[in-house]
Structure prediction request, 356 residues.
Amino acid sequence: MLSPGPQRIGKRLAWLDALRGLAAVLVVYEHAVAGLSPSVHAASGAWFAAGWCGVMVFFLASGYIVPASLERRGEVRAFWIGRVFRLYPLWALCMAGALLLLPVTGSPLAHLSMLQDLLGTPSAVSVLWTLSYEMAFYLLLTALFTLGAHRRSAEIALGLAAVALAGAALLPTGALTGAALPALAVIAAGLAAVLGGDGPVRQAGAAVLLVAVTALLALNGRLPAWQSLIVVATMFSGTALYRAEQGQITWARAWIVLAVPVTGVLLSPGTNLKTAFVAAWAIFLAGMALRGRGVPYVLSWLGLVSYSVYLLHPLLLRVMPALWAVPATFALSALTWRWVEAPAQRLGRRLVTADG
Prediction:
């Protein structure tokens, strides 16, 4: 999955939970069908990358709801407390499982930052790569909010897509290999300045974050640079659509973000990625168009547990046949939601209240 939104986002945003549920199913299908039927996986994968479609839906959903959470609170410290208690408890459980079942290499600090995919460290569990882009997005949001430039989501999305298109064959991959610790130190210093500084110190910290994270995305991702930039552009596209829906910008201004999936299609090397881009956007826009309708309970529930489903299914696929791993994933996710995710979110909200 990727980063989920608030624990309870209300009936008005139930469609977003439904989309996350559908996205989780697409990702699980991608990984499980390879074990269930390699021939089906090969045949379907040649024309449609279901997992990529699923994560792109997740990225759009995160872009839509996460900046709204920051702006509603109006305070970056509260935003980060909420994000830490939303992401890290289940991540820690996933990492514990990875240490037991998988060979884990690379910098522990890179993993702890969740930026490992942008720092030259292989992800301990394959699906954790998406959290690197979620974390990069949060850092960029923090910088833009501090600098007062957060309302330019549509223009930022378009700019990132333009850089991806112009630099597709020029931007390197892994150019900063070996510089993980210095990069982390710079990002940590920038974030500390934003969270703890005043006036010019906060502004300087935000500028450092903006430059450092953008450099990692453009020069040092595991994905090709164009793909890294399109991922983040997709999240800012989700934000732009939210702003248009809320009347913060015009729809004419918001629709320029359609250049993002067009760019993704143009740059994608295979038919399967091209159709995944188109399908992800079609799914998200259909969800928006139908947002006033009722949502099937099963999709709403899947959205609720989608973070657990996303992080835990690769571990279960590692230890049992796919036929059993899939239902076991949903059963285990119900438990981890009840006993890990929900209590951690409640604690985070209490800390935010106390901090305020």
Summary: The two ends are 30 Å apart (CA to CA). Residues 3-9 have pLDDT under 50 and may be disordered. The longest helix spans residues 322-355. The chain is about 75% helix and 0% strand.
